[in-house]
Design brief:
heterodimer; A: mainly alpha; B: seven-stranded mixed beta sheet; 21 strands; about 25% strand
Chain lengths: ~550, ~475
């Protein structure tokens, strides 16, 4: 028969004997979840309100915004865990990732801007550092409070665990890649070539983006200027030979030719490919040598090379050589791409393919959303930011943003901003995943741990942002309470199951933790008061120090026993 | 017993360090003093421990030590703190035998016990055939801070065993006496004791049966016929075919098992009352059965044979061998949907697959006919003695028994159908299956057969009382 350890240890591998009250790993008891949610969200609201400078109405709106963000985060975690409906769930989760990023940016950014505008203008130079520290602390407090709310709401059910965090990070990164690529594609022509027309539309930008590879091929086929273009020539040879080799490898030539002629074809193919590879290697060896072309002027090169110069220049400039090679390069790239894609599609089944592509669908959905609402949302957002920035910074920002929008087009700017917001969510998700893997955040009780860390950080940086001592100390106690209640609840649910009516022991435990924390906080508050008026060597200070020393010795002895 | 110190408050040290650092960075006395909070928690965790003399007593009691299969048995566990200190967190796990399924409540409990305090909690298991022993309970004690953990096994006082026996197979019934002249009245006239009808005198009729009074009145010679009393053959047919080998939950007996159990109880009652009962079963493996096998693949235990009881026992054993739950068989999503397949119980917890199983419709009626249902019917019917009373024990989860009953009724056999109800899953699929089953019961009743439906939780005797009375000729 199993030992007591086995009997009590795991409730979730109980087998068919226990169908009632058995649960999946990571779910917390009701009491634990309730305590975590209420304490984390409550203290986050208090701390966030203490640093926010928008008054009661503004604070309430911010709290509502952050709670909505937390709910979106929880929803997207749930969707990222979807087994069967991945094709529908992942795109939705991607859009929600955008919502989460926007919410976090708005909440934290609002606080930062508010503090900036109250801190500036600065009276004197040495106050710059203090004001800067104050703004930074306020931003960190707001970030901590937001993270605490996210963690608190995500602790309902079993939404946030090590493995779901990893899946979510994966999903977020893939969703991020699509708007990033599209916005880069749209911005690069403008950045490289300068603006073509004021306020380019989406069509203009796409044409410019498609024009880039065409321009590159043009450059390759028809080199500009006189003199040797050995570098580009060698590079072209390498690319063509390599591309052709890959294309012949990927193309289904061996499948299409059968019988004795098939063997001969196969052998001939192998010979050709070997020669192509040799050619590519030789040309690749030439490339570093040809780098000298960039350093030296053509006249110096002519002097150095002597009689070889003219034929070399003729060969490397010959369009008759370059144009066919460019054409061959394009064709082999096309064949390679098509063969690879077809091969992969044939080998995987539809469901796996859909599952692999689903996150990218989310990115596409985000892009479409950004394109659809950019007209309505972009201008007010930029105006709000420039209004929030104090004095000169505001006008400068407005100028720069208007210029950028005119040059690069509102669409491109909106897409870039969208990519940035999704990137914020990516950073959050990746940070949580790494923290879980490293061990900073508990693997099973990830959400309560996240909420506790958020509250701890928010309380720790509070005094720097002007939060009062009572709230700071209360926030510290709250963070430990959240961590304790969450972890304890998960252990109880794992060992006993949720149907076991675990109220009394849990409330006893949480009450003990709360009592100890409150006692310590009250003591700390008294100590802080005394410490403010203390002077080294004065009698009251010495008395207090003596008492503290005695207490420390007693505790040490008791603990070591 | 193991005693460990759980390092739950490891976070205290880094927290103290970071608070001190931040306090120095911001020159904030509040933060520096706030470093007391994590220090306080570390001290609390270090000082908190499970009292050394903590003792826990566990007692168990069961409401029925010899239940019928399929009934719910309630187990009450009483936990007492026999020590002097408070136990803020005492987790008890009663060891339920692995074969029994818990259907109500949970054998695991978390309690807070003061000194001398005692708490009782209950849970229910489903009985199955066999003897089951409860082992010792596991107890885990934690201190208030959760930093001290003690795990131990506690011997449980009280009930340790429950046993659920099948009447024929487990408790050997001696050979029942077979009385040729039964107590069952029939509707045909002939020699007997109860008046039935009169007919014209034929030369050769016995003098004792001449209606002398009429002769005296009218001068006609008539002969009286009485109700013939003869030992009517009863045939018990147990349906153990594949569609019936499902259970509403894991650990609960399947429909085929319960039909076999009902058949055994009926056989026991009938032979005890002197009725000649033959037994046959459908859907069993005929390779190893110790009874003669008829063409059509069903074993036949003839009630008028010498070792009738032994043969019947062999048939019921064959039924038991096959009537366990269907193990793998993903193919046919059958009538009773969720949780019927032990292999898919794990999936039952996953919300994504429950819907899939719950959507399965009853496209299974062909399943009964595809394996030569009508051919089997014909062969079975050819074995039945004419006019035999047929008792069909079947879970009624497909339509083949309905067509069998119809055919039996057209051939003039009186039919009684005893059917255990295994459709109580509480899900949409279960409701659907229950509705279909009720419809089949109604169809059968419309043919003139007697139907008895019983839910496994109810006592079988009550449900069978009427049918048995009717079969043994109590109030024909």
């Amino acid at each position: 028969m199993t030992t007591a350890e086995d009997a009590v240890g795991q409730s979730d591998d109980a087998g068919p004997a226990e169908t009632e009250g058995s649960l999946r790993v990571g779910q917390s008891s009701r009491v634990g979840t309730a305590v975590v949610v209420v304490v984390s969200v409550g203290f986050a609201a208090l701390l966030g309100g203490a640093v926010g400078s928008a008054g009661v109405a503004g604070s309430t709106a911010t709290v509502a915004l952050v709670v909505a963000t937390a709910l979106s985060f929880a929803a997207s975690l749930r969707l990222a865990d979807a087994g069967r409906f991945r094709v529908l769930a992942y795109p939705l989760a991607g859009v929600l990732a955008l919502v989460v990023g926007t919410g976090v940016a708005a909440a934290v950014g609002g606080v930062a801007l508010g503090h900036l505008s109250t801190s500036y203008p600065v009276q004197s130079f040495d106050q710059v550092r203090i004001a800067g520290l104050s703004v930074l602390s306020a931003t960190i407090v707001a970030l901590g409070a937001t993270v605490a709310t996210l963690g608190g709401v995500a602790s309902i059910g079993r939404l946030l665990r090590g493995e779901t965090a990893e899946a979510y990070a994966d999903l977020a990164v893939k969703t991020f890649l699509v708007p990033l690529t599209v916005s880069a594609l749209l911005l690069v022509p403008t950045l490289l070539a300068g603006s073509t027309a004021p306020e380019p539309t989406l069509a203009d930008l796409f044409a410019a983006a498609l024009g880039l590879p065409v321009a590159l091929l043009d450059l390759l086929a028809f080199p500009a200027g006189d003199g040797t273009h050995l570098l580009t020539f060698a590079a072209l040879v390498v690319a063509t030979a390599g591309g052709l080799d890959r294309a012949l490898d990927a193309a289904p030539v061996s499948e299409l030719s059968t019988g004795p002629s098939g063997e001969r074809t196969g052998a001939a193919l192998e010979r050709v490919r070997r020669r192509l590879r040799v050619l590519a290697v030789v040309a690749a060896a030439v490339v570093p040598v040809a780098l000298v072309e960039l350093a030296l002027a053509q006249s110096a090169l002519a002097n150095a090379l002597g009689p070889v110069y003219a034929p070399l220049a003729a060969v490397t400039n010959a369009t008759a050589l370059r144009l066919p090679m460019v054409a061959l390069l394009v064709v082999s790239l096309a064949v390679w791409t098509v063969s690879e894609l077809l091969g992969r599609t044939v080998r995987t089944n539809a469901r796996d393919l859909a599952g692999a592509l689903a996150p990218f669908l989310g990115g596409v959905a985000v892009v479409c959303l950004a394109v659809a609402v950019q007209g309505v949302v972009l201008d007010p957002a930029l105006t709000a930011v420039s209004a929030g920035l104090p004095g000169e910074f505001g006008t400068a920002f407005e100028r720069q943003s208007t210029a950028l929008v005119e040059n690069a087009g509102a669409v491109a700017v909106a897409l870039a901003v969208t990519a940035g917001l999704v990137g914020l969510t990516v950073v959050l998700a990746v940070a949580v995943t790494l923290a879980t893997q490293v061990g900073v955040l508990d693997d099973r009780a990830t959400a309560p741990a996240l909420a506790a860390v958020g509250l701890f950080v928010a309380s720790g940086f509070g005094p720097g942002a002007g939060v009062g001592a009572p709230l700071v100390l209360a926030g510290l106690v709250g963070s430990f309470l959240v961590w304790d209640a969450g972890e304890y609840g998960i252990t109880v649910a794992r060992e006993v199951g949720r149907a076991g009516h675990t109220y009394r022991p849990e409330l006893a435990h949480i009450g003990g933790t709360l009592a100890v924390g409150t006692a310590a906080a009250v003591l700390a508050w008294g100590l802080a008061d005394v410490a403010v008026g203390a002077a080294f060597g004065s009698l009251p200070t010495l008395r207090l120090a003596f008492v503290a020393l005695l207490g420390g010795i007693v505790l040490l002895v008791a603990a070591l026993r | 017993m193991t005693d460990v110190r759980a390092s739950r408050w490891r976070v205290g040290a880094p927290a103290t360090l970071s608070l001190v650092t931040l306090g120095l960075l911001y020159a904030s006395p509040a933060l520096l003093a706030g470093a007391l909070i994590p220090l306080g928690y570390v001290a609390y965790a270090a000082l908190s421990a499970v009292p050394g003399d903590a003792t826990v007593r566990v007692e168990r009691s069961v409401d029925d030590r010899a239940p019928a299969p399929g009934t719910h048995v309630t187990v009450a566990v009483t936990v007492t703190n026999a020590g002097d200190g408070t136990l803020p967190d005492c987790r008890v796990v009663d060891s339920v035998p692995a074969e029994l399924a818990v259907v109500e409540g949970s054998p695991r409990r978390s309690l807070a016990l003061g000194p001398g305090e005692s708490v009782t909690y209950r849970y229910a298991v489903v009985a199955r055939r066999g003897e089951f022993t409860f082992e010792d309970a596991g107890v885990r004690l934690r201190s208030l801070a959760g930093s001290g953990v003690r795990t131990e096994t506690v011997a449980v006082e009280g009930t340790e065993r429950i046993a659920c026996h099948y009447p024929l197979s487990d408790v050997g019934v001696g050979g029942a006496t077979l009385r040729r002249a039964g107590t069952h009245s029939t509707d045909s006239g002939g020699p007997g004791t109860e008046f039935h009808s009169t007919r014209e005198y034929r030369p050769g009729d016995p003098q004792s049966r001449i209606h002398w009074r009429r002769l005296a009145k009218t001068g006609e010679l008539t002969t009286v016929s009485f109700r013939e009393e003869r030992a009517v053959r009863t045939v018990i047919v147990v349906d153990a075919r594949v569609p019936g080998r499902v259970a509403p939950q894991p650990g609960v007996p399947t429909g085929a098992e319960l039909a076999g159990y009902a058949g055994e109880r009926l056989f026991e009652s009938l032979t005890g009352a002197g009725v000649v009962a033959s037994v046959t079963a459908l859907g069993v493996e005929t390779d190893d059965v110790a009874a003669p096998v008829q063409p059509g693949g069903f074993p036949w235990a003839d009630g008028s044979a010498g070792a009738a009881t032994t043969l019947a026992r062999a048939v019921f054993a064959a039924v038991r061998d096959v009537s366990g739950p269907r193990v793998d068989d993903g193919g046919d999503p059958d009538v009773v949907d969720d949780g019927t397949d032990p292999a898919t119980v794990g999936d039952q917890a996953d919300p994504d697959t429950v819907g899939e199983q719950g959507d399965a419709t009853s496209a299974t009626a062909p399943g009964a006919a595809t394996d030569g249902g009508s051919e089997r019917e014909r062969l079975l019917l050819s074995q039945l003695p004419s006019g035999a009373e047929v008792v069909l024990a079947t879970p009624l989860l497909d339509d083949w028994p309905v067509s069998l009953v119809r055919t039996l009724r057209t051939q003039g056999h009186p039919v009684t159908v005893v059917s255990p109800d295994v459709t109580g899953t509480g899900s949409v699929g279960g409701e659907f299956a229950a509705t279909e089953r009720r419809h089949r019961l109604a169809t059968i009743a419309a043919t003139g057969a007697t139907t008895t439906s019983w839910a496994p939780g109810d006592p079988l005797d009550l449900a069978l009382a009427e049918s048995v009375a009717h079969l043994t000729g109590g109030d024909a």
